[in-house]
Amino acid sequence: MTVAITVQNLNHYFGQGQLQKQVLFDINLEINSGEIVIMTGPSGSGKTTLLTLVGGLRSAQSGSLNVLGQELAGATAKQLTEARRHHGYIFQAHNLHSSLTAIQNVKMGLELHPAVSLTEIQTRATDMLEQVGLGDHLHDYPDDLSGGQKQRVAIARALVSHPQLVLADEPTAALDSKSGRDVVTLMQTLAKEQGCTILLVTHDNRILDVADRIVNMEDGRLTKTALALTEI
Amino acid sequence: MIKFIQQLQRRTPLGWLQLSHERGRLVVALAGIAFADVLMFMQLGFQASLYDSNTRVDRAMAADIILLSPKALNLQNLSTFSRRRLLQALDVPDVQAANALYINSLTWRNPQTRLNATVQVLGFDPDQPAFNLPQVNQQLDKLKLPDTVLFDRGARGEYASVITQLDQNQPVTTEAEGRTLTLTGLFELGASFGADANLMTSDQTFQRLFPRRDAASVSLGLLRLKPGADPDQVAAALKSHLPEDVLVLTAAEFVQFEENYWKTASPVGFVFGLGTAMAFVVGVVIVYQVLSTDVNAHLKEYATFKAMGYHNGYLLSVVFEEAMILAFVGFIPGAILPLGLYALAAKATALPIFMTVSRALLVLTLTVVMCILSGAIATRKLQSADPADMF
C-alpha cells in the first residue's frame, strides 16, 4: 500500500517575534492511500491548522510534509496552488458560489484541469450530481437548495475531478443528524469508488464509525496516532 | 489561437453570471456608467459645438487666403488694417481678387420684441460675393439698396415671427444707431458663442451704421486666387511682399486660428475639457463602487476558488470581465440618451450640437479605460481573499 501523506517533525508557529506562538508540536503522521482518517480534538487544538498545512493552504515552516509525493515544506505559492488542484475540499459551510447553479458550481471543479474537454466537463458534472442524488436539481441556485443538498453539491464539486486526497473540515457541523449521516456515507461511498484518501476533522461523534483510523489532537500534539476502530 | 477559443468555450462566464445574478446591482451600475457617458457626451458635444459654431462664419468665407490685423484675437475682436494692403496684394501674380470685409457688433432693436439686442454685422461689396452661401449670393441685389440687410435664420433669440414674415417675402423694418434698417431676406449661418445672430449688408450700409469706422480700415481681406494656384505658395509670396502690419493666413489656417483662440485664450475650451475629466472621474468612482462591492460580496467564494487551486490571475480576469461587460453594456444607453439631449440642446441654444462617430468612439474608449481603471483598483481587495481562512 502506498503512502499518501507523510508528516515528520512538523512544527508550526503563528505570529512573529515576541508574539510568536507555537500551535503545532512535533507532529508525526502517516496516512496510506485509500484510508479514511478522522481527526478529533477540542477547539483550538490545532486540527484545522494541520489540515490547512496538508491541503497546501498555508506553507509549512519546519519539518517535512509530503503530500501525494510532493514536498510542501518550503514550496512556493505557485507550487502550493498547483498542489491544491489535486485535492478536494469540503468545508464546514458549503461555500458554493451563489451566482452559479448547482451544475455550474460542480463544473468549476473541473475547469481547473485543462486536459478535460468541454463535453467531458458537462457529462462528468451531470453524472456527479446524479450520484449525489441531485439529478433533478442541476440548474437550481444554492439559495433554492436545502442545507443538506448544498453540502452534497459541495461534495460533488470536490470529488468531480477525482482527487487523490479529500480534506474535510467539519462537513456535518451545519447539518441535522440525518443529513449529516447521509453526507458522510456519501463521501465514504464515493471515496471508496474513486480510491481516494480522506482526512476529516470533526467534533461529531455520530460519524466516527466511517473512519479506518482516528487520530486525536490536543494542544498541538497528536495523542493517539493509531487507534483502531475496534478499540473505541 | 484555436486553443485560446477552446479555452474560452470551456470557461464558465463567471463575471457575467455574477453580474446578471444581481439584477438590481447591475441596473444601478449600468445607470451609473450611462450617466458618466452622458456627462462626457454633453461636455464634448458642447466643446465641439463651440469650435464648430465659432468657425462657421470663417468657413463660409469665399476666400483662399485671408489678410487680417496682427492684433486680431478672434472674429469678434479683429481690429483693423489698412485697405492699401489689399491693393498691394493684387501685385502678387496668382491673386485674382482682393475684397474687404467689415465686421462689427451692433446693438439693434429686435424687430419682434422691440428690445435691444446685439448682432454681428458683416459688410462687403455686393458686387463681389464674400461668402460661399448660395442664399446670400442670390440676394446680393437686394443689398444694393441703402439700409437693407439680410437676416440669419439660425439666430438665437426671439425672431420666429420675423423669420415667418421674411419667408413670405414681406420686408421687416427695425431701428439701429438712429437709422431705419429693412430686413429683406434670409440666409442661414447660426448663432455662435461669440454672436447671437449675423446680419449681412453692403459696405455702404455698414459705413452708415458705423460712421466712426473708416472705410480705409478693413476688418478682413478676402483674397481669391487664380484657378490652379497653390494657396501655401501664394501666402508665402504675400508674406514677403506685404509689410508686417498685416497677417497672411490660408483659409484653413484662419479657421485654425479662430479655433485656437477658443481652445486656449478663452476659458470656455478649458471648462468643457475639465467637465469631461470630471465626468470620467465620476464614472471611475461609480464603477469602482460597484466592482468593489461585488468583490466584497464574493470574497468567500473567491477564497474557495483559490483553495480549489485557481490562480490569482483567474480571479483578476473575472473582475476585468465584469469591468468590460459594464463598459460595453453601459455605453449603449450612454450613447443613445445624448442623441435626444443633443437635439434638445441644439433647439434651446441654436448651436450645432450633434453626435459624431469619432466622438462616440472616443467616449467608448474612455468608458473602457474608466472601467479597467476601476477594475484595477477593485482587484486590490482580492488579495484579502485568503483560502487558509476558509477552514
TrEMBL record, chain A:
Transport in keyword set: yes
One GO cellular component, as annotated: membrane protein complex
Example of a GO MF term: ATP hydrolysis activity
Pfam families for the chain: ABC_tran (PF00005)
Keyword terms, alphabetized: ATP-binding, Nucleotide-binding, Transport
Domain annotation ABC transporter: ranges: 5-232
Descriptive protein name: DevA family ABC transporter ATP-binding protein
Protein's organism: Pegethrix bostrychoides GSE-TBD4-15B
Automatic annotation (TrEMBL), chain B:
Keyword Transport attached: yes
Record key words, sorted: Cell membrane, Membrane, Transmembrane, Transmembrane helix, Transport
Source organism, top-level taxon: Bacteria
Subcellular location: Cell membrane
Residue ranges of every copy of the MacB-like periplasmic core domain listed in the record: 30-239
Main subcellular localisation: membrane
Coiled coil: none
Membrane topology value: Multi-pass membrane protein
Protein name: ABC transporter permease DevC
Domain ABC3 transporter permease C-terminal: 277-383
Cellular component, GO annotation: plasma membrane
Spans through the membrane: 268-291, 323-345, 357-378
